[in-house]
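Key result, reporting period 2: structure in, sequence out.
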């Protein structure tokens, strides 16, 4: 039986914009109110996804969400026709309107936490959508995310879908961005690392002082319980509060793993040596590569600016590993020098492939944010909704769809334009036909 680690990239939605919504995410704040290009953003994402499919990896796409989210605006007490609601919200509560217009579901690393069937007690692939309660504009995602995941992984013989965690700060859950799975082979039982920013119910435990810790230990433990993981296959690691306070708002900004490789910055974690020992003990005696990047080579601010660790580390069909990096890594001399040195070291990583995902990077999302990893065996891959899997036909179809429905440029003040809502709904209705998703959106109910 063959095993794969599939990447499911988030399709960037028609309202992609820079609204400065993410306190603690440096890029989001720095680029607030910049002009965005929804069309460029979507095509950059499709290009990266197609490139991985062409490299022989299993690659899928997850549909965007309905934005502006009129259902949430109505829950906030706005009433009248859709146009009247957009108008009122723009006048009376522009911050709420912006929070209901973000295309942030494109960053599917935050869509859910996924545990492969080799790790779970019932031998199914488990999904728990992230409740994303730390940010208003993300907290409105999980229900539709769950609908889209169930329409994509729609065979209950192989896939188990959970409800997102309770919507309270004690259960702050940001999904796979704070979850890394190490294994010798994708199909073998692995060790799942849950990285958290604070222990919410212990007021004396260390926590960041300047920026929020979006993931709690309580949330990570709850997901591990829901996914029926053994203690022997689970490690909880606290993110170093000092790096959160420098803009590391998710672990995937400072560390990334693939199979038997953990690539991380020396300042990433608290109690690093003890945790690496725990990982080694639980991983067993097969080879394990800890690639620690010293501050002397790459400072935290360089890591946060370039997204060196928000890269994808993939295993090519040849068995060699490659890094999928944003072009921003080429533009940072310290990081570029480090990557050129890395591929000469004695690790499985042998090449770096660069992609322009600047539309996403300007909002704090790099290549790794844009994808949700789902390790599956060939039967599970065959059970996935095949119309979501990337190939030449879907690539062409989705590019034509983007060309037809997406604007070349968008300003935050355009979000209240009733025409944009019509364009967005028309596009998504058509998309559910293309990807055979069924009625996953509120406006289709
Ligand atoms: N995994 C990367 C997530 C980036 C995302 N940025 C945003 O939501 C920015 C939205 C804006 O500011 O328009 C976040 O911080 O959750």
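The corresponding designed sequence is given below.
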């Amino acid at each position: 039986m063959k095993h794969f680690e599939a990447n499911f990239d988030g399709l960037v939605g028609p309202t992609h914009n820079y609204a400065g919504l993410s306190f603690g995410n440096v890029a989001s704040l720095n680029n607030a109110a910049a002009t965005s290009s929804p069309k460029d953003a979507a095509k950059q994402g499709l290009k990266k996804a197609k490139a991985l499919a062409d490299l022989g990896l299993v690659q899928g796409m997850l549909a965007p969400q309905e934005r502006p989210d009129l259902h949430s605006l109505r829950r906030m007490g706005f009433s009248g026709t859709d146009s009247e609601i957009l108008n009122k919200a723009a006048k009376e509560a522009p911050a709420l309107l912006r929070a209901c217009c973000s295309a942030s579901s494109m960053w599917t690393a935050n869509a859910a936490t996924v545990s492969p069937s080799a790790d779970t007690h019932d031998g199914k692939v488990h999904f728990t959508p992230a409740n994303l309660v730390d940010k208003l504009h993300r907290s409105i995602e999980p229900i539709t995310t769950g609908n889209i995941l169930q329409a994509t992984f729609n065979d209950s013989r192989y896939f188990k879908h959970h409800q997102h965690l309770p919507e309270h700060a004690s259960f702050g859950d940001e999904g796979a961005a704070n979850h890394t799975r190490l294994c010798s082979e994708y199909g073998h039982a692995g060790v799942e690392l849950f990285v958290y920013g604070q222990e919410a119910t212990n007021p004396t435990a260390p926590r960041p002082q300047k920026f929020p810790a979006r993931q709690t230990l309580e949330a990570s433990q709850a997901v591990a319980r829901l996914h029926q993981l053994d203690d022997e296959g689970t490690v909880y690691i606290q993110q170093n509060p000092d790096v959160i306070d420098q803009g590391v708002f998710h672990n995937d900004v400072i560390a990334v793993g693939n199979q038997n490789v953990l690539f991380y910055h020396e300042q990433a974690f608290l109690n690093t040596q003890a945790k690496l020992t725990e990982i080694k003990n639980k991983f067993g005696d097969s080879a394990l590569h800890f690639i620690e990047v010293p501050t002397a080579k790459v400072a935290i601010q360089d890591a946060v600016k370039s997204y060196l660790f928000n890269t994808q580390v993939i295993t090519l069909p040849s068995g060699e590993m490659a890094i999928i990096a944003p072009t921003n890594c080429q533009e940072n001399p310290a990081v570029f020098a480090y990557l050129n040195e890395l591929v000469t070291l004695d690790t499985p990583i042998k090449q770096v492939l660069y992609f322009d995902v600047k539309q996403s990077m300007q909002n704090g999302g790099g290549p790794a944010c844009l994808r949700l990893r789902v390790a599956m065996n060939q039967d599970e891959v065959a059970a996935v909704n095949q119309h979501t899997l990337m190939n030449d036909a879907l690539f062409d179809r989705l590019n034509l769809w983007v060309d037809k429905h997406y604007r070349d440029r968008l300003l935050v003040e355009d979000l209240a334009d009733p025409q944009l809502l019509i364009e967005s709904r028309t596009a998504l209705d058509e998309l559910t036909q293309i990807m055979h998703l069924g009625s996953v959106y509120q406006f289709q109910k």
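The pocket of N~2~-(3-carboxypropanoyl)-L-ornithine is lined by residues 18-22, 25, 28, 102, 104, 107, 109-110, 135, 138, 177, 249-250, 363-365, 369 (CB under 6 Å). The first strand starts at residue 3 and ends at 10. This case is discussed further under Risks and Mitigation.
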